[in-house]
Amino acid sequence: MARQSVFVFLLIGFAVVGLVGMAWSPAWYLQLIIVPLLALGLRDAMQTKHTVLRNFPIIGHFRYLIEHFRPEIQQYLIESNLDAYPVEREYRALIYQRAKGELETKPFGTQRDVYRPGYEWAAHVTTPAPLLEEEPRIDIGGKDCGKPYSSSLLNVSAMSFGSLSKNAIMALNRGAAEGGFAHNTGEGGVSRYHLEGGGDLIWQIGSGYFGCRTPEGRFNPERFGETATGETVRMIELKLSQGAKPGAGGILPGPKVSREIAEAREVPAGEACISPAAHSAFSTPSELMEFIGQLRDLSGGKPVGIKFCMGRISDFMAMCRAMLDTGIRPDFITVDGGEGGTGAAPLEFTNSLGMPKRDAIVTVHDILTGTGLRDDIKIFCSGKILSAFHMIRALALGADGCNSARGMMFALGCIQSLSCNNNTCPTGVTTQNPSLVRGLVVDDKAPRVARYHRKTIESLIKMLSAMGLSHTDEIRPHHIYRRATELNVSTFADLYNFLEPGQLLDETNGQGPFGDSWRTARSDRWD
């Protein structure tokens, strides 16, 4: 109620002035101010385009006033050489424009310091290649997969019902259905809001086995099979860890576990919902592969993959050893960077655990290539994927596709109020407060999600053309440059060492930097 206090105050003021005006006619002049503001408040509360105005009548206009002057404020920060200007804010503005269908062009060229270490760019050619006529897609599914899936290069990354509101889930899913891309459920189970829009789903299974668990919290094969064989569930993703809090479990406090969330997760309403730090369905690399095979069989042959933030390289070596020993492979691997986001995580975990995504993609791609497994497994990248260039950079390092959570949240209207963890999100994206959730109008936001996806893919295709490439399969590390110092520039091919196919399996011809770890890797234990 406090957030609409201005609106309520105007209503009371209008009534008071009206009563006073009956005895003192000059008081009617005050209504020249109150009546227009009251009308503005009613309009704000009833419109469906702007969530902040819908949730915060009248006072929400101050936010848009500040946004109107943002280019001037940003330019001042840049000219003042302040490090307080975050690049991500620039991409947020781009996503807003893209999602709303507004003009994306920008005057006066780049505002980046192009001679600052870390600046990256793609090499273009004098004669661009013809534009792709259709969106490139990825076929996912190995030899044991009976129902392969044709995936977009950009999908909605994992965000569960509970971390997001029901309206946010419905908008994302309808947007995915309209745009022809996939929506990852996050580890909170498949809720009815994931199913209403008819969008393709990637069902993520975490250590809590929400939506497919026994009362004791262990994996329930029967419940899994019932949901996994559903028409809209296209792929299964087994989450081992995530970039924002690798090696840690999770907890949804009891007050936030509503009846609907409890139904989706198959837990008691009102009680804390806990995800353990480790899985109980397997304890060795070989058991992990056998569990992947079980999930594939129970789902009717759908693609099954794993998601993790790269930690000890020896652990992934052990997984690859188990793939070779058991003959069972995941159909895809989602590599989450240590810079990935979340609604709530310990600060030390967020800042100081987990390999950044660029290094992690190269490592996963390299080890799969060196063990001869790369052709059987697709790689997805997640963690601050916001633009077409971010996608191209990931593909140059070895990824096949990308997932975005942050970008999709911006398309929904997220303003980064940093209130995800206290249930007060002003845009209704990451809250379960009904009065705030109502501000996010699904019919308005779903097309924005689809539009952001479509325009980002279109931008990707145009950048490919400018780079002289005919398909995303042609992107290589030497196409991307990175400034190391003010005077030194290298390509990704110069910065990273890439293994040859099968190199780790050939002990007579030099196994590269991972040789020692590979020789000691075992499939019956995590080393």
How would you describe this structure to a colleague?
This protein is α/β, with parallel strands linked by helices and 527 residues long. The chain folds into two domains: 2-85, no CATH class; 139-505, Aldolase class I (TIM Barrel, Alpha-Beta Barrel). Helix content is 40%, strand content 12%. It contains 20 helices and 15 strands. It has an eight-stranded parallel sheet with strand order 4-13-12-11-10-7-6-5. A three-stranded antiparallel sheet has the order 1-14-15.
List the defining traits of the structure above:
eight-stranded parallel β-sheet, alpha/beta, 20 helices, 15 strands, 12% strand, 2 domains, TIM Barrel, 527 residues
Class derived from helix and strand content: alpha/beta
CATH class of the largest domain: Alpha Beta
Biggest β-sheet: count, sense, barrel?
8 strands, parallel
Low-pLDDT sequence parts: 69-85
Helical content, roughly?
A: 25-40%
- The outline comes out as globular
CATH topology of the largest domain: TIM Barrel
Q: How much β-strand is present in the residues?
A: 5-15%
* Strand order within the widest beta sheet: 4-13-12-11-10-7-6-5
Number of strands: 15
Architecture of the largest domain, CATH level 2?
A: Alpha-Beta Barrel
Query: What's the Cα radius of gyration?
Result: 25 Å
Number of helices: 20
For this structure, what is the CATH homologous superfamily of the largest domain? Answer: Aldolase class I
What is the residue-mean pLDDT, rounded to a whole number?
Answer: 85
Cα separation of the termini: 55 Å
Number of domains: 2
